[in-house]
From TrEMBL, chain A:
Stored InterPro entries: ABC_transp_permease, BCAA_transport_permease
Record GO terms (molecular function): transmembrane transporter activity
Main localization of the protein described in the UniProt heading: membrane
GO term, biological process aspect, one: amino acid transport
Protein name per UniProt: Branched-chain amino acid ABC transporter permease
Compartment annotation: Cell membrane
Topology within the bilayer: Multi-pass membrane protein
Keywords: Amino-acid transport, Cell membrane, Membrane, Transmembrane, Transmembrane helix, Transport
The keyword Transmembrane helix appears for this protein: yes
Length: 290, 315
């Protein structure tokens, strides 16, 4: 029982960590709180569902469409909606409110489009749904694949950010947006890139999630909340923080569902979040991204 | 008292009196429509009372609205009706004080997310409690209140909320709030007790929202958490106050009335495209009317006036 709970907790946590990394890039580097983030996840989940159900294309291939698709979508959202707000903003506070409200609007638009296209039903598909024996317990193969994909993608993003010049520039903007131009970094370009990269991660996360969870057109908000909770718990802009906090949240949710009451998982999430916000608003692991 | 002040007061009384007589002529559908509209006007006024000057974007509206509605449902068979409203108001006040004390040091996006999370947390907990402890999810409300009665109560609440926000805007408190909204550091240096002012306003706005929920609850007859704590209420209130301009006395009313009618019409005619249109309105307001429609109109006038004046001089 415990091993099963820990394993499913890790699977869930791995996916959460992947989702949170994208949001932490968007909020930490581009400084835009994207409340429509979860909608991008759900769009990718529906894309994967449609490809699998109607064309028989496996979700692993769907990733190859979702990743660049999410990148382009994120790039377009930043360029069309966010950049004018950034240019107009008098100070950080007014930009924050404007971007929250705009992405709110975007949330409703995307959600509405999904509702019109796919309806409000619970959606899922059965891909690799056979049990695999692991550590003396049985786990669905799709969950195992989800964990592997999350680890591979997360590691790739981490390496890009820490080992390449491009990634270093992005992190520089996260740490000191005021000083970054002094060393020749185009801050607006970096923000656009980070936002687009965040979109790509959201889309990848959506594909991964759709492999083992049911979702609806309106469940984006829950994912946004969870990603946000992890971002804030891990420290804004902190990639490793997001990873650890994501795993922590996944484990906490599974434990509560297994040992307390499945009806209380969401309440746990929000309770944990409210506690972190009050106790350590800078996150469990601090803000720094070095 | 200046003549202008007397004129304003009498205009206000005349409008309220005219609205109070409306149920004598209106059809049952008209009254239903007016109840919904007044509810949102009161919510928007309550929202703007706190969020307008302090610029804290709150999504906790439905948390208090739902608390009001649920209190009404839970105690409807135990308590006399006026007492019911009092208890609801007190519970709303208590929750607002606890939440306010804990959260008002959060700013910006943290506050937005916190208030949204709060509403969801309360909804989850109520759902869990009802399913596991009481064993039923929904509750029936049978109260001897007529639609006209609800309408008059809401009208009284709205008038009181409007009068309060007018009184506050002219008082020292209103001035203090404006300073806080502009710059908190300056405010604290001029001796304003920021925490107390914010907390007081947050509690006042929460009590108004709770009462709206408690007064409207008998209209539903049946409540369950997903109805009472529907997050759309928070979004609609927010967008209404913003459209009119949350810093203006008339702003919330000017935003709530047209948007309520628009959404009523949309949900009747385009139920499937409701949220797309809601989202587009959100985006449009942020891009075109960032300070509300009143501000937009006044700026438009201000641009025209200097052109008109020199022409008069030449005459």
């Amino acid at each position: 029982m415990l091993v099963t709970a820990v394993l499913s907790g890790l699977v869930l946590g791995g996916t959460y960590a992947l989702l949170a990394m994208g949001l932490t890039l968007q909020y930490g580097i581009a400084r835009i709180m994207n409340l429509a983030y979860g909608e991008l996840i759900i769009v990718a989940a529906f894309l994967s569902y449609a490809l699998f159900t109607y064309a028989g294309i496996s979700p692993v291939w769907a990733l190859l469409i979702a990743l660049p698709g999410g990148f382009v979508l994120g790039y377009a959202i930043y360029g069309l909606l966010m950049a004018p707000l950034v240019r107009r903003a008098r100070n950080a506070a007014s930009l924050e409110i404007d971007s929250i409200l705009t992405t709110f609007g975007l949330l409703f638009v995307i959600q509405g489009l999904l509702l019109v296209t796919f309806g409000a039903n619970f959606t899922s598909y059965s891909y690799l749904n056979d049990a695999v024996q692991i550590f003396g317990t049985r786990l669905a193969a799709n969950r195992l694949l989800a964990l592997v994909l999350a680890v591979v993608l997360g590691a790739a993003i981490y390496l890009v950010l820490t080992r390449t010049l491009w990634g270093t520039a992005l992190r520089a903007v996260a740490v000191a947006p005021g000083s970054a131009p002094l060393v020749g970094i185009d801050v607006e370009r970096a923000a656009r890139m980070a936002f687009a990269l965040g979109g790509a991660l959201a889309a990848a996360g959506g594909v991964v999630i759709s492999m083992y969870q049911t979702f609806t057109a309106t469940s984006g908000v829950v994912f946004t909340m969870k990603a946000l909770i992890i971002v804030i718990m891990g420290g804004v802009g902190n990639i490793l923080g997001a990873l650890s906090a994501g795993l922590l949240l996944g484990l906490a949710e599974t434990m509560v569902a297994t040992y307390v009451d499945p009806g209380l998982t969401l309440a746990t999430t929000y309770g944990l979040f409210l506690a972190v916000l009050l106790w350590r608003p800078t996150g469990l692991f601090g803000r720094a991204v070095r | 008292m200046t003549p202008r002040f007397l004129l304003e007061i009498s205009a206000f009384i005349a409008v309220i009196a005219a609205l109070a007589l409306l149920p004598l002529f209106a059809s049952p559908y008209g009254i239903t429509l007016m109840i919904g509209m007044l509810g949102y006007v009161a919510l928007a006024i309550g929202w703007a009372l706190f969020s307008g000057p302090t610029r804290y974007v709150s999504l906790a509206t439905v948390a208090f609205f739902g608390i009001g509605a649920y209190t009404c449902a839970v105690f409807s068979e135990v308590l006399a009706y006026p007492l019911l409203l009092l208890v609801a108001g007190l519970i709303g006040l208590g929750v607002a004080l606890v939440v306010g004390l804990a959260t008002l040091r959060l700013a910006g996006v943290y506050f937005v997310i916190f208030t949204f999370g709060l509403a969801e947390l309360i909804r989850q907990l109520v759902t869990w409690y009802e399913v596991n402890i009481t064993g039923t999810l929904g509750r029936y409300i049978f109260l001897p209140v007529t639609p006209e009665g609800i309408y008059w109560q809401l009208l009284a609440l709205t008038a009181a909320a409007f009068a309060m926000s007018w009184a506050i805007s002219r008082s020292r408190l209103g001035l203090a709030l404006k300073v806080i909204g502009e710059d908190e550091v300056v405010a604290s240096h001029s001796g304003i007790d920021i925490a107390r002012v914010k907390l007081g306003l947050f509690a006042l706005s929460a009590v108004i929202m709770t009462l709206v929920g408690a007064i409207q609850a008998p209209r539903w007859t049946y409540v369950e958490p997903s109805i009472a704590f529907n997050p759309t209420v928070s979004f609609l209130t927010l967008i209404m106050a913003l459209l009119g301009g949350a810093n203006r006395l008339m702003g919330p009313i000017l935003g709530a009335v047209p948007l309520f009618l628009l959404f009523e019409w949309l949900s009747a005619n385009f139920p499937n495209h409701y949220s797309i249109i809601l989202g587009l309105i959100f985006i449009t307001i942020v891009f075109v009317l960032p300070n509300g429609v009143l501000d937009f109109i006044e700026k438009g006038w201000a641009r025209r006036l200097p052109v008109a004046k020199p022409a008069e001089v030449h005459k």
